[in-house]
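Something for you to look into today, if you have time. I want to see for myself how the chain folds. Leave the record below and I will have a look.
***
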Amino acid sequence: MFGKSESCTTSCITPILLGVLIVLNVFGLFLLIGNSFSLPSSISFDPIGVKKALLEIEYSKVGGKANYDIMTQAQNLSVNDPQNPSNIEAMKKYISTFTSGAKAPIATPTTPAVGATLTPTDVATILSGASIEGSKTADIIAIEYSDMECPFCIKQYHDTKIQESLKAQYGNKVAFAFKNNRGVNHPGTEAKALGALCAKKLGGDTAYTGFYHAVMDGTQQGSPYPVSKLGDIAKKISLDATKWQSCVDNKDTLAIFTAETAEANKYGMGGTPGTLLLNVKTGKYTTVEGAYPFSSFTDKITSIQ
């Protein structure tokens, strides 16, 4: 009930303080000139004092100078962090999308129309890079384009249990595959994607899926698997840890990560998670864009059977 007034405590006091300062200045000016209307030849002005007063106001907003210094340092680090999607370079790109005050048009992903069909070439391209879990001869494959740090992707893995649910509902008729999508680019997004893809480069599909599940099993909502421990997973799944680390450090699989992200965007899944449901026999497909209840998946699978 009092939320609105409570939220402006500092901002409401600041104008009052400024008003008091103005009154005091006027009163001081009056005393200075007495009963005469002539102004003094000079009025002293202390810019350092003014700056200090303004800083004190800023300090009070965040609970003191120490907090202000920490927040300033964090902001400086954030805008220069290449993994931050809102860094200074991203801001420059955003500004560059405006021409003469009008924002340049940007393509908006759309949900495929009912009965949408892919060509055999498109189907083959999608399957060529997919590490399929389940029956390799399944009629339908659910390909999740996801980010191992995205909160909703974590929810889909642990709560919806999409892969296990598909297996329980459809048996060998529906298979599953995970592909990487940069999405909003969380702090460990790239490291984990490159880690999984390097595992695949060195150990094939089994190493890739093993790496993916190890990361997700060790991740909980609000507590992503530590990037610093990804090397432990590489050792656990019997990879040559030195070769794996070199692959990650040199970003040998970055082009694959970029291609998988582009593939997700091509089919209207810019956000994460996004799941492409594909009938590999007929080419019919549809998508589930987001972490929805399992019933959303079954309804859409029915539409392409």
